[in-house]
Amino acid sequence: MTELNPLTVAVQMDPMEGIKIGGDSTFHIMLAAQARGHRLYHYLAPDLTYREGRVLAKARPVKVQKVEGDHFAFGDWEMLDLGRDVDVVLMRQDPPFDLSYITATHLLERVQAETLVVNDPASVRNAPEKLFVLDYARFMPPTMITRDLDEVKSFLAQHGEIVVKPLYGNAGNAVFHVGQSGANLSALVELFKASWVEPFMVQAFIPGVAQGDKRIVLVDGEVAGAVNRIPGQGEIRSNLAVGGSAAKTELTERELEICEALGPELRRRGLLFVGIDVIGGEWLTEINVTSPTGIVSIDAFNGTDTGGMIWDAIDARLAARAAA
């Protein structure tokens, strides 16, 4: 759509007060929407209500600007019917990917016949980052999902060094590197089993992570750009949220091969904005579909407009729906 045909957009995200506008991808997308004349509303996932066959959201109109500390202004509360009052819903609240998150996907799935939800809520629910990626195991480092200590010990003996991380974690939280000695491995597995009811992920350690963990963004299955995230001193985690630094980068032939393999399936599933993580130029570790980030750094390094690309892709999806 253009400024002559503005959209009404409801953004399901975290509180506006807490976002860091310098690197927040959702804020970046909202700025791009506003520049096109679209009307924005903001609400939180707990603000959803199902009533008599309709999905409602208690929301406020919001205007955004790139001014630290004065980056948003709310209007008065309204009760939106997400099927009738809204053209697009952006589902952008951060994980954890828990029952609350899953419930929101079920509710938003009920408006899909009337309103475009990005990313597709059923596909988000069925494609958690560290499980969907198993469909592309040929591109992954050796990987195991388990709760069994003996299996982890065997995997460590086979691969020498490993990384242990929660299956539904985010932003680099609770990611541990275990060396050849296996020191504290038993205690670490005990901690994971006590903290989470689900299995956890174990992967062979890739030394190339010291040179960075590349975030590649795909918009409707096409590469929009990439940024290399370099771990801080003494860290293996490269996430910007835990002290990693961003650097300009290009894609390797292997990374292009990975993107070409993923693109058609992402499009088919309605996963319009996706961020994949690749270590050492060749090892795919995650496919991020819930609330991917990285576009601010990508645009800063490359002079691109990924927010605009996302809205172009949304326009194309809306046009296809209208023509169907």
From TrEMBL:
Q: Which domain of life is it from?
A: Bacteria
Domain ATP-grasp residues, every copy? 130-315
SUPFAM superfamilies linked to this entry: Glutathione synthetase ATP-binding domain-like, PreATP-grasp domain
Q: Name one GO molecular function term.
A: metal ion binding
GO CC aspect terms = cytoplasm
Recorded catalytic activity of this chain's protein: gamma-L-glutamyl-L-cysteine + glycine + ATP = glutathione + ADP + phosphate + H(+)
Q: Identify its protein family.
A: Belongs to the prokaryotic GSH synthase family.
Q: What is the name of this protein? A: Glutathione synthetase
Q: Which organism is it from?
A: Sphingobium ummariense RL-3
> Which gene is this protein's source?
gshB
